[in-house]
């Protein structure tokens, strides 16, 4: 009935106009990651809203008098160091991708490993912080600060952990020469995720520790 | 038929040679017939799976509705005890929203959208399979609560503190929380897939302005899912910690804030309403022009109204919370947004009516349902406008008026649209027609039963009958309309049985081979055989207008350009090389069937059970097992991809 729409291999291949979306050069997988990160923005946005809603309850007169506000509990210089480590890992990620795009296999693998290492350092520091806070008596179930802080930073930490696993698998492939100047979409997408997780930490650090 | 031999003098210029179709491991053939379905990554098969499962849950949710109505048929009825009644209305809503309407829409979209945009499959076929299995397991998981200690009984929006352990002592709420989280992952994965498919895999020439309206609405819905679901995910996580780890996020006794739940829930919940209704708006925007024999009236208005509805839907959530005392300013702001959203919705209704105006209308079953959709949705829209006003809402909130409203929007809107799409695309999906006579019976039974069941609820609500009460006293003046409503519900139930009978009868009946385009429709899904082959199109279609198949047969001046004119007409767009027409042939690289999406999804089901039932002593073992399981599943998946 309507078969004329594609009558087989056309003798005259029409150079057709494509959908001018501005997305032609964007890889399919990369676009998927961008959309996913949009989803993640709302996820952390909702968690941060939760923290804001409960923040007044962490600064009641009673808690201020007892020196049990977040400002008293949290060690800002220590966590500032962690934030620095995480930001540096963004730098090493950029260097890794850059090396891979230049087909410098060993350098690319090295910087990927460095990124994963810095992520692991961050996780170690965060575990130390969690243990310290638990020792001081703030847990999931006994205080507004404990539950809000642990859930918010805990879910960020989970994201870092997933990133470290992902970076390690990228490293395992990079060291065997799996990526080169024409094939770097894997580390590139991993990098997008990694930078996003770092940016989220900047926001969390500002809101939870500095404000 | 799809595979026509090239006519010697084909006048139509609309062809690009297809890249060779790679089907990996074609010999990895089924050892048993079901393997085809368990390991499928074909968007058409996955679409059918979604449709079948969704329809099964639709029947289950309908059965629950009939139990509710039976209990309410007369005052002081003892058909259902109160606790079971609570479980029924909770599970009826949860099932219909998350397990019936959403998956049926995803199923139709899965089957139709890639065909409609001229692609060979979804952008991520394996992720697509993963979404389906996750949905199936999530749905089964929630419903298993009936057998394992009691279903959730706190209503579909599960307000705190009712959901706290002290007030909901069974496992029901835990099942609900974990099940919805799993369904949320499935929905988000599906939405990413739809967005990338629609943005990246359209046929050459299909600009945004030529995209079919159903595709437009699917795109908007997918963005709504992306931006609304995380909000409920966070709410569910916090609630789960409240119930399993002793936090006090929503427990006022421990300093928690129950209103936070409502904000997080409705920030998701109101966009969700549009997630349910917009696909149906897309369906009727496809059906009406085909059966009115003229192009849609005001294409751009319909498309951009959909986008406007999408944006506005994020600004109206607190109209569900007027009665919580947010204050005059907040109530006023959210009322304004809610009134505003009526504008693009009304624009669409006028567009649909304008499409029929002066058309040569053929009242086949899809058209009947599409027209029914417009009529019923107008009623639901008007009661919605009244509820957007805080003073009216104070009067009507938590009454049967709201129940009437939601059913006019979600049954009279979403479901009637789905029925229209079902009758419309059935020949394409299954290669056979549904019976027209039974279809008409189904339609009229639905219209009579639906209006009898739900219209009187407007009056019941206005007379003060609260929603979610399991019974009422005889002297309230509610007896007659409740009995009337229940009668209507039975008629509605019978009409669904007519649909089931229709499916079986037309399935068994001998039918002549289905032509490619039985309705003389205009969009690309009708340009291939019915049902389509695994790779969808033998050649990449090239699109020059909104109605490629009509333009093809009735070229008009200024319409489909002749050969060579194409580039001149749209010189601003980059010239595609045929081999790049589908992302360097990406879409034509059909992946091999794989079982790993199923294995991975099944792991999440096990985790869900572990969260609920693993005794403390086994928790460490459980976590280690889960990590190992997912490591194997992910490794297998990735390995298959990289091969």
Fold and architecture overview:
- The complex is a heterodimer of chains A (211) and B (643).
- Chain A is mainly α and 211 residues long.
- Chain A has a single domain, classed as Up-down Bundle (Four Helix Bundle (Hemerythrin (Met), subunit A)).
- Chain A contains seven helices and no strands.
- The radius of gyration of chain A is 23 Å and the shape is elongated.
- The N and C termini of chain A lie far apart (68 Å).
- Chain B has 643 residues and is mainly α.
- Chain B has two domains: 490 residues, Up-down Bundle (Cytochrome C Oxidase, Chain A); 49 residues.
- Chain B is built from 18 helices and four strands.
- Chain B has a two-stranded antiparallel sheet. In chain B, strands 2-4 form a two-stranded parallel sheet.
- In chain B, helix 2 packs antiparallel against helix 3.
- The N terminus of chain B is likely disordered.
- The chains are: A mainly alpha (211), B mainly alpha (643).
- At the A-B interface, helix 1 and helix 6 of A face strand 1, helix 5, helix 6, helix 7 and strand 3 of B.
């Amino acid at each position: 009935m309507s078969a004329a729409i594609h009558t087989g291999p056309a003798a005259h291949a029409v150079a057709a106009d494509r959908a001018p979306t501005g997305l032609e050069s964007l890889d399919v997988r990369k676009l998927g990651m961008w959309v996913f990160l949009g989803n993640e923005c709302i996820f952390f946005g909702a968690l941060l809203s939760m923290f804001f809603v409960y923040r007044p309850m962490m600064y009641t007169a009673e808690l201020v008098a007892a020196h049990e506000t977040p400002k008293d509990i949290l060690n800002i210089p220590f966590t500032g160091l962690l934030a620095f480590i995480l930001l540096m890992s963004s730098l090493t990620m950029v260097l890794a991708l850059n090396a891979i795009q230049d087909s410098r296999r060993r350098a690319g693998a090295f910087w990927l490993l460095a990124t994963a290492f810095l992520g692991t350092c961050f996780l170690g520091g965060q575990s130390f912080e969690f243990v310290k806070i638990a020792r001081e008596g703030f847990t999931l179930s006994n205080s507004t600060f404990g539950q809000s802080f642990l859930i918010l930073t805990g879910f960020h930490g989970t994201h870092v952990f997933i990133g470290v696993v992902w970076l390690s698998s990228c490293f395992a492939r990079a060291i065997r020469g799996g990526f080169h100047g024409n094939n770097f979409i894997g580390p590139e997408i991993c990098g997008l995720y990694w930078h996003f997780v770092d940016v989220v930490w900047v926001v969390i650090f500002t809101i939870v520790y500095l404000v | 038929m799809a595979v026509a031999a090239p006519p010697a003098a084909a006048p139509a210029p609309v062809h690009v040679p297809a890249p060779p179709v790679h089907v990996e491991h074609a010999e990895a053939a089924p050892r048993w017939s079901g393997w085809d379905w368990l390991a499928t990554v074909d968007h058409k098969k996955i679409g059918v799976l979604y449709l079948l499962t969704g329809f099964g849950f639709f029947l289950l949710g309908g059965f629950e509705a009939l139990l509710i109505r039976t209990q309410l048929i007369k005052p002081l009825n003892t058909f259902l005890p109160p606790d079971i009644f609570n479980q029924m209305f909770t599970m009826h809503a949860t099932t219909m929203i998350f397990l019936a309407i959403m998956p049926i829409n995803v199923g139709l979209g899965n089957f139709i959208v890639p065909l409609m945009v001229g692609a060979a499959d979804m952008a991520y076929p394996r992720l697509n399979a993963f979404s389906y299995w996750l949905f199936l397991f999530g749905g089964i998981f929630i419903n298993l609560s009936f057998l394992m200690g009691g279903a959730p009984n706190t209503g579909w929006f599960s307000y705190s503190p009712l959901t706290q352990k002290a007030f909901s002592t069974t496992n029901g709420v835990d099942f609900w929380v974990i099940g919805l989280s799993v369904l949320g992952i499935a929905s988000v994965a599906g939405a990413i897939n739809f967005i990338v498919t629609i943005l990246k895999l359209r046929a050459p020439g299909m600009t945004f302005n030529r995209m079919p309206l159903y595709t437009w609405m699917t795109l908007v819905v997918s963005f709504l899912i992306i931006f609304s679901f995380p909000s409920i995910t966070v709410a569910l996580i916090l609630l789960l910690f409240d119930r399993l780890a002793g936090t006090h996020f929503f427990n006022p006794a421990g300093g928690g804030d129950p209103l936070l739940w409502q904000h997080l829930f409705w920030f998701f919940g109101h966009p969700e309403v549009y997630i349910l209704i917009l696909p149906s708006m897309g369906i009727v925007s496809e059906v009406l022009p085909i059966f009115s024999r003229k192009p849609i009236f005001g294409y751009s208005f319909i498309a951009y109204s959909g986008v406007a509805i999408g944006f506005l839907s994020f600004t109206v959530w607190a109209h569900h919370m007027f009665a919580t005392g947010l204050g005059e300013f907040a109530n006023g702001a959210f009322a304004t947004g809610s009134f505003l959203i009526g504008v693009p919705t009304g624009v669409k209704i006028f567009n649909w009516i304008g499409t029929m105006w002066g058309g040569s209308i053929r009242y086949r079953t899809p058209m009947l349902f599409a027209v029914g959709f417009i009529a019923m949705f107008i009623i639901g829209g008007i009661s919605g406008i009244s509820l957007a006003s805080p003073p009216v809402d104070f009067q009507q909130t938590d009454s049967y008026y709201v129940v009437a409203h939601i059913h006019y929007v979600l049954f009279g809107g979403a479901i009637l649209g789905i029925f229209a799409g079902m009758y419309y695309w059935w020949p394409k999906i299954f290669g056979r027609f549904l019976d027209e006579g039974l279809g008409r019976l189904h339609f009229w039974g639905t219209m009579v039963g639906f209006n009898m069941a739900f219209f009187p609820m407007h009056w019941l609500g206005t007379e003060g009958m609260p929603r979610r009460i399991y019974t009422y006293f005889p002297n309230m003046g509610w007896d007659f309309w409740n009995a009337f409503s229940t009668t209507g519900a039975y008629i509605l139930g019978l009409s669904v049985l007519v649909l089931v009978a229709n499916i079986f009868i037309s399935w068994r009946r001998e039918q002549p081979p289905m032509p490619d385009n039985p309705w003389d429709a205009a969009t690309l899904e009708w340009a291939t055989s019915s049902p389509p082959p695994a790779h969808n199109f033998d050649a990449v279609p090239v699109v020059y207008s909104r109605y490629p198949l009509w333009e093809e047969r009735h070229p008009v001046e200024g319409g489909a350009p002749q050969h060579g004119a194409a580039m001149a007409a749209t010189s601003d767009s980059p010239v595609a090389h045929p081999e790049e027409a589908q992302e360097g042939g990406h879409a034509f690289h059909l992946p091999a069937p794989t079982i790993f999406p199923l294995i991975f999804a099944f792991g999440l089901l096990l985790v869900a059970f572990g969260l609920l039932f693993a005794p403390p002593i086994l928790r460490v073992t459980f976590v280690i097992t889960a990590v190992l399981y997912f490591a194997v599943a992910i490794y297998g998946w990735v390995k298959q991809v990289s091969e």
